[in-house]
Amino acid sequence: MTVRRIPTTQRPRATGAVRRRLVVGFLVLLALVLITLSFRQESDGPLAGFQSAGSTALRPFAVGLERVAQPFRDGYDWVDSLLGARSEAEELRAENRELRQRAIQNEFAGQENAYLRRELRYLDGPRFPDDFDAVAAEVIGRPAGAFTQAIVIAAGSRDGVRLNDPVVTADGLVGLVTRVTPHTARIQLLTDQEAAVSAVDVRTGAPGIVRHARGTRETLVLDRVRKQEVIRVGDEIVTAGWRASGFSSLYPKGILIGEVTSVGQTDTDLYQQVQVDPYVDLGSLDAVLVLVPAGRSR
Amino acid sequence: MSAGAALRASALIFVAALLQVAIVSSLVFAGGAPDLLLVVVVCVGLLRGSVPGAIIGFAGGLLVDLLTIDTLGVTSLVLTLAGFWAGRYGETTGRGRRVAPLVAVGLITVLAGVFGFTLHYLLGEAVIARHALFTALAPALVVNLALAYPVYTLVRATVGERRTIEPSAEVEVVV
Known about the structure:
The complex is a heterodimer.
Chain A lengths: L1 E4 L7 H28 L5 H38 L1 H36 L11 E10 L8 E4 L12 E4 L2 E9 L4 E5 L6 E6 L5 E6 L7 E4 L12 E4 L3 E2 L2 E2 L7 E9 L8 E6 L8 E7 L5
Antiparallel strand pairs in A: 2-3, 2-15, 3-6, 4-5, 4-15, 5-6, 7-8, 7-10, 8-9, 9-14, 10-13, 11-12, 13-14
Chain B lengths: L2 H20 L13 H13 L1 H18 L6 H18 L8 H23 L6 H7 L1 H23 L11 E4 L1
Helix pairs in contact in B: 1-2, 1-3, 2-3, 2-4, 2-5, 2-7, 3-4, 4-5, 5-7
């Protein structure tokens, strides 16, 4: 039995270690410099230009991959929907009957409302959807990790999209544009921890702020609702679209957000605890509409 | 690392970053999504060493930050350290061990999760610890572990394994 040293390369051990430390130290330093510059930069700074150029160059690959993946995603959704199709059909028939009745009532109320507005010469802020054009865009990216609730879309400033434009789907509110490059834009979803939307309960008119619910990924809460307001499960929540002292909400009035799923209050809390289920399935967005004010030049 | 291997590793990380952003991030299982890019970076580190692991991690992170128009450098920092650590593990105690991919992916998923949480917190982005560290991290750990061996096999077939061994003070017994 003999003992021997494991074969080694010819390079001295110390040189390899120094080289390794130098390379990693440089990369870590570079990453820290990028973070610092990225945080401090203006929207038209050199790093923003680099990011914009990089995002534009990578956009065709992201769009291509998204299109390749789309049929598979549709197939999965189709199989998934078959499992609950029968019970869902029953629910939808009942909902359809109720909505038909409400549509007739709303038609009368709408005509009356239009007549009264004309008579009163009522001045109002931008209304959804009449005062907005919609830029339809494909979702081409979703940031990884649990830290950010955002998507990237294949439309940017060249398509008329600007910072803070609201984003919707046919089902309701999705979020807000938080970064724009010429050909892509980043959308902060309603479920992001930084997002907040002034909203009202349609039935009672009770105001509040819709925020991300702590500890969950896709649930919202209607915060700051006073205890004397009577909120019920099933109430619809829409954007408030307020205007005051020259300031206005980033979201136009009347965009559907979600439905109240639970209401609670405790003696110690100042406000009610209202949980809201968003109408939009924010986890499986394929395409969205960016609302740009009507008449904005592209 | 030869020019051919470097080219293949670059192509692999490019495809992994695109797949991660366009498809994999939306595959949510029990509240968490797999991190294919992290698993690829760990496997490259294990197979090719700490320096290639760190460089590939940095490049992959930069690609993701560009694709998602996110704060530049955040993902790069996390993946650089992940690739480096995986490389060091592969060069030392993990060398030749069958469970090395599983151990490295598992440990680095948890460490990257905690480090990412800390980084976002330091940058002033409110991060809810319970969600980030338990609701999302636990299912992500499970799916990342499930990906470890298939991705390791794919990466080894694509970029190969480093033949040279780091100078070592270790000895072996020959009978």
